[in-house]
């Protein structure tokens, strides 16, 4: 449950910074922002893994950069579903996806540093016990 909250918090912070930095991403109210973050989290938990699996060969060929395109499409889908959350075009969504990815990595590293746990980069699970 705590991991879910941390992931959602990283989504909220990343989306908030993307809205502040990217001129093509707008939100009309704080409630619309929270709804957009929740919807984006649900989309990332349900639809994005399927798309990652289907586009794995293309992601390998592009050294993972195609995953940013998938994340941009998830942001655009969120904008289509949430009234009050607007994305002006694909370039804005791609810039937002890059910002959110950087914030997510910073959050993942900072949680590991603050809690003293190790990161399993393959499954993004935190392991607090060390086996020697």
Number of strands: 4
Unreliable segments of 5+ consecutive residues:
none
Counting structural domains, the number is: 1
Instruction: Name the beta content range.
Output: 5-15%
Terminus-to-terminus distance: 28 Å
Counting helices, strands and paired strands, the structural category is: mainly alpha
Strands in their spatial order, largest beta sheet = 1-2
Mean pLDDT: 85
**Count of individual helical segments:** 5
**Main sheet attributes: strand count, strand direction, barrel closure:** 2 strands, antiparallel
As a percent range, the share of helical residues equals over 70%
Radius of gyration: 15 Å
Overall, the morphology is globular
Order of helices and strands: HEHHHEHEE
Structural overview:
α1 crosses α5 and α4 packs across α5. The protein has one domain. The relative contact order is 0.16. β3 and β4 form a beta hairpin. The chain has a two-stranded antiparallel sheet with strand order 1-2. It has a two-stranded antiparallel sheet with strand order 3-4. It is mostly helical and 132 residues long. Helices cover 70% and strands 9% of the residues. It starts with a helix and ends in a 5-residue tail after the last strand.
């Amino acid at each position: 449950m705590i991991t879910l909250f941390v992931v959602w918090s990283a989504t909220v912070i990343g989306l908030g910074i993307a809205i502040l930095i990217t001129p093509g991403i707008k939100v009309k109210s704080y409630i619309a922002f929270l709804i957009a973050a929740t919807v984006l989290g649900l989309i990332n938990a349900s639809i994005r893994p399927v798309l990652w699996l289907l586009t794995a060969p293309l992601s390998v060929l592009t050294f993972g950069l195609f995953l940013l395109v998938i994340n941009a499409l998830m942001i655009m889908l969120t904008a289509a579903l949430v009234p009050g959350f607007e994305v002006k075009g694909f370039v804005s969504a791609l810039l937002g996806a890059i910002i959110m990815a950087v914030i997510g990595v910073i959050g993942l590293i900072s949680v590991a540093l603050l809690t003293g746990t190790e990161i399993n980069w393959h499954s993004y699970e935190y392991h607090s016990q060390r086996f020697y």
